[in-house]
């Protein structure tokens, strides 16, 4: 058991490192480039803010690097402006006056930055920038820092918008395949339960199908990222309304597919519990085919309504749960193919509408 636990933890660590590799490499290269540009263009001896900005813009785990860069820049502008204006107030440099100035500047910078309606980095950078103007001086933390931030942001946007622009359609397709693969595992357990007539295995199949909720939530996250990408990346701008339309369709189809999986698991459990011995021979084969279609939709074997009618015709008319299992298996397989066909439809529509 300890070996299995160790392997599971190692796999999670490996997956995290793999997921962070591309963004980490981009951040590292951007740091070097930002340093060189700030030294060459601005003549800054130690352009710390340029390299820090590059990391903040491109660090792994951010939902959208382009939005992060713009949000940070807006926060820095706001904070420096508030900090510079606060120096015009003739309240003196005593301990109490300085403390009062710091308190007021922090509050005002954060409130004004929140009006932009951007991410948390905007208000954080606004507050920090205002405080740096007061504590480090307007020259070092004002124009000089602003130039460094502009250089770091420009490098971050170059990487996120030109070199590493995410494909919103690909994000949606990856999430959809993950959801279908999870449902396929539940369908294979359902097939095994039918062949053995084991009610406990039917329960396990229902639980596995229900566990696909995690993948559905991940797909929901991908849908949100795709919508965000349509506003904050060059590729998203080109796709325009198509991305929003496709995201909405994914949202509807994915929720329906998950619901069909839940219904199938529930009906299978009741079928084996309440209608034992009434399972028609083709049901297990049907579940196997549906599972394969979900696991490998690129090589799916469509199940038409005629085949479904043929299977249903040999089911005892009183075995309502078995009829529901057959119906949901076919519907789930068809819905999976339809879900993965959405990106191809969107790309075809985009090519058809593009200027010749």
UniProtKB/TrEMBL annotation:
Keywords for the protein's UniProt record, in alphabetical order: Membrane, Transmembrane, Transmembrane helix
What kind of membrane protein is this, topologically? Multi-pass membrane protein
**Residue stretches in coiled coil:** none
Q: Which Pfam families match?
A: FUSC_2
Q: Name one GO cellular component term.
A: membrane
Could you tell me which residue ranges the Integral membrane bound transporter domain spans? 34-159
Superkingdom of this protein's organism? Bacteria
Localization, per the record, is: Membrane
Which InterPro entries does the entry mention? Memb_transporter_dom
Q: Does the keyword Ribosomal protein apply?
A: no
Record bears the keyword RNA-binding: no
Q: Where are the transmembrane segments?
A: 20-41, 70-92, 104-134
Q: What is this protein called?
A: Aromatic acid exporter family protein
Instruction: State the species of origin.
Output: Paenirhodobacter populi
């Amino acid at each position: 058991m300890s070996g299995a636990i160790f392997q599971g933890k190692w796999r999670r660590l490996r997956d995290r490192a793999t997921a962070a590799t591309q963004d980490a490499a981009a951040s590292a290269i951007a740091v070097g480039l930002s340093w060189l540009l700030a030294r060459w263009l601005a003549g800054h001896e130690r352009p710390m803010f340029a390299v820090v900005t590059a990391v903040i813009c491109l660090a792994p785990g951010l939902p959208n690097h382009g939005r992060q860069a713009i949000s940070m820049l807006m926060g820095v502008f706001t904070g420096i402006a508030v900090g510079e204006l606060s120096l015009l107030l003739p309240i003196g440099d005593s301990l109490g006056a300085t403390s009062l100035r710091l308190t007021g500047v922090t509050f005002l910078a954060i409130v004004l930055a929140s009006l932009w309606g951007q991410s948390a980095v905007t208000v954080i950078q606004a507050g920090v920038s205002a405080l740096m103007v007061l504590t480090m001086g307007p020259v070092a933390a004002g124009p000089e820092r602003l130039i460094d931030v502009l250089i770091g942001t420009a490098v971050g946007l170059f990487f996120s918008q030109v070199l590493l622009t995410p494909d919103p359609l690909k994000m949606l397709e990856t999430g959809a395949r993950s959801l279908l693969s999870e449902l396929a595992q539940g369908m294979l357990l359902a097939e095994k339960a039918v062949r053995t007539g084991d009610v406990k295995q039917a329960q396990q199949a229902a639980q596995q199908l229900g566990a696909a909720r995690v993948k559905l939530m991940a797909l929901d996250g991908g849908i949100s990222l795709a919508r965000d990408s349509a506003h904050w990346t060059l590729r998203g701008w080109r796709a325009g309304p198509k991305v929003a339309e496709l995201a909405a369709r994914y949202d509807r189809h994915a929720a329906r597919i998950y619901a069909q999986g839940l219904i199938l698991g529930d009906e299978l459990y009741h079928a084996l519990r309440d209608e034992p011995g009434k399972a028609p021979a083709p049901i297990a084969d049907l579940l196997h085919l549906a599972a394969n279609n979900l696991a490998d939709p690129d090589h799916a074997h469509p199940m038409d309504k005629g085949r479904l009618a043929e299977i249903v015709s040999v089911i005892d008319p009183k075995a309502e749960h078995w009829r529901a299992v057959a119906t949901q298996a076919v519907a789930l397989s068809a819905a999976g193919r339809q879900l993965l066909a959405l990106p191809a439809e969107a790309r075809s529509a985009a090519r058809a509408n593009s200027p010749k």
